[in-house]
Write a structure and sequence with these properties.
By secondary structure, the chain is α+β, with helices and mostly antiparallel strands. It is 21% helix and 30% strand. A four-stranded mixed sheet has the order 1-3-2-4, with helices on one face. Helix 1 runs parallel beside helix 2.
Length: 107
């Protein structure tokens, strides 16, 4: 497991210890379009926590860079998770509407 992935998982684990008391809590996670970060966010144990009501990996989509030092890398984007004081009554919704690939044709 990469260092970045471990860091993302640890950060999320810390956030998931919190239980909202009266108001919704929103967790924003940056660089959610990067494949390593995205994998760590998607594979975190969101569903094990009943106060998590939804996770969206592409709240704000990222970009495929064409800049020399970052050419072909995918960065940016914000993921969002919503925690509510009441427990979730059904399955957790984890949405990831965009599929990113750094193997695009780069002409």
């Amino acid at each position: 497991m990469e260092t970045i992935e471990i860091g993302v998982r640890n950060d999320i684990a810390t956030c998931l210890k919190y239980k909202p008391k009266k108001r919704p809590t929103f967790i924003l996670m940056h660089d959610s379009s990067n494949p390593t970060v995205r994998k760590a966010i998607a594979e975190s144990p969101w569903a094990e926590h009943p106060h998590v009501h939804g996770v969206g990996l592409d709240f704000i989509p990222g970009v495929l860079f064409d800049r020399g030092d970052l050419r072909g890398q995918i960065w940016g984007g914000l993921a969002a998770a919503v925690m509510l004081p009441e427990k979730r009554s059904g399955e957790l919704s984890l949405e990831a509407p965009f599929e990113y690939s750094s193997t695009r044709n780069q002409s």
